[in-house]
Amino acid sequence: MNEQTAAPLNTRAPQCPVPRPDLDQVLLGHGAGGRLTAELLDSVVLPALAGEELRGPLEDAADIPGEDGLVITTDGFVVSPLFFPGGDIGSLAVHGTVNDLAMRGAEPIALTVAVVIEEGMELDELRAVLTSLGTAARAAGLPVLAGDTKVVQRGHADKVFITTTGLGRRIPGLRPSAAGARDGDTVLLSGPIGAHGTAVLSTREQLGFTADIVSDSRPLHRLVRALAPLGEAVHTLRDPTRGGLAAALNEIALDSGVQITLDETALPIPGQVAAACGILGLDPLHVANEGCLVAFVPQERAQEALRLMRSRPEGVGAVSVGQVNGTRPGRVVIRTAIGGERIVDMPLGEQLPRIC
After folding, report:
1. How far apart are CA 154 and CA 91, in angstroms?
2. What one-character-per-residue DSSP string does 131-183 give?
3. Which of 2, 55, 86, 297 lies in the 20 to 30 Å Cα band around 319?
4. Which helix (H) or strand (E) holds 342?
5. How far, in Å, CA of 349 to CA of 356, rounded?
6. Closest alpha carbon to 58 in 206, 253, 251
7. Cβ distance 250 to 350 under 8 Å?
8. What's the predicted TM-score (pTM) here?
9. Which of 130, 51, 59 is CA-nearest to residue 93?
10. Surface-to-core class of residue 339, CB atoms within 10 Å of its CB (0-12 exposed, 13-18 middle, 19+ buried)
11. Distance from C-alpha of 129 to C-alpha of 133, rounded to nearest angstrom
12. For the CA atoms of 200, 206, 210, 214, what is the dihedral angle to 10 degrees?
């Protein structure tokens, strides 16, 4: 090697696309549901809003103090593009809010909606988004009781952002929690994973997968209602949205203080999704979903739970994908098809930003 052209080693920082978590600025990855989101919540959001009283598992929805059985959740939606195969930002706002209530064992009873609109947005496009939102709310049996509308200058938003608040009533007997998984539980998944994130990305980047991959966006409260006969045997429910199944399971493992072991051969990953992720270099376990849930139940009740889930269209593809076992609390591992094991880490940021 010519001495004059050889660069000394380690003379400059490596050019890594993964964002550095020690910067004093908000990064796109801070809103992605992975490790950066958890750091932002722990270091900035929770200390500012509630201090120590909100420490503990961060659930999808919260009980209203002094109101027995009432549950509340708030969510924001900044999807790009607004329309994608299988849904749009309007219907997704309803489905995401309904599902956050459902993961706490609650049926939705009311919804409020706030819309931030960018100056210059076509009225026909706005009308299509809001019509879809209203149609999805009615299909879920969820009245929109209040709302707000704001308009910001051109270039200060991306067409439209939607924020929702949902109110629900707990289904008798169900009290699932992210901290409720127990040693010996079976991990159930209600259906295939990875379709939503890959459908949105394909549309955004015009990758050509849209004919084969459609978002799974749909409400899950009726599927949760089907699990009501199991009562307190439903230890944990979670819909693996931002950060995908990997983020959801890592949160549960940490909050419950258990190790979760997945079976790679049992994971329902559609062939089209697997192919798209392979081409794009994505891990299907990190890709967001909007129409499936993961449930933790005692091993002896697993077959009954699967039967109940498969009785609903939303759960017809339900399968067992793993167990709660092992000696390393807070860890998620996967047994591979060739008999080895690997750790399933919490995503740092997001492979696919702005998908919900």
Report:
1. 25
2. HHHHHHHHHTT--EEEEEEEEE-TTSSSSEEEEEEEEEEEPTT----TT---T
3. 86
4. strand 341-343
5. 14
6. 251
7. no
8. 0.87
9. 130
10. exposed
11. 6
12. 0
Coil vs helix vs strand at 303: helix
Query: How many C-beta atoms lie closer than 10 Å to residue 144's C-beta?
Result: 16
Contacts of 59-65 spanning 24+ positions with Cβ under 8 A: 59/103, 59/104, 59/177, 59/178, 60/99, 60/100, 60/101, 60/103, 60/104, 60/238, 60/239, 61/100, 61/101, 61/103, 61/104, 61/106, 61/166, 61/168, 62/104, 63/104
Rounded distance between C-alpha atoms, residue 33 and residue 333, angstroms: 19
d(CA 351, CA 213): 18
DSSP tag of 261: E
The SS3 assignment for 247 reads helix
Strand ranges across the sheet with 70-77: 62-63, 70-77, 160-170, 106-118, 144-152
Taking the CA atoms of residue 123, residue 129, residue 131 and residue 134 in that order, the dihedral angle to the nearest 10 degrees is -140
Return per-residue pLDDT of the chain as tens, 356 residues: 333 333 333 333 333 344 455 568 877 766 655 666 667 666 677 777 775 555 567 788 999 998 889 999 999 999 999 999 999 999 999 999 999 999 999 999 999 999 999 999 999 999 999 999 999 999 999 999 999 999 999 999 999 999 999 999 999 999 999 999 999 999 999 999 999 999 998 898 888 775 689 999 999 999 999 999 999 999 999 999 988 999 999 999 999 999 999 999 999 999 999 999 998 888 999 999 999 999 999 999 999 999 999 999 999 999 999 999 988 999 999 999 898 999 999 876 556 677 88
The amino acid present at 81, given as its one-letter code, is: P
Q: Cβ(196)–Cβ(289) under 8 Å?
A: yes
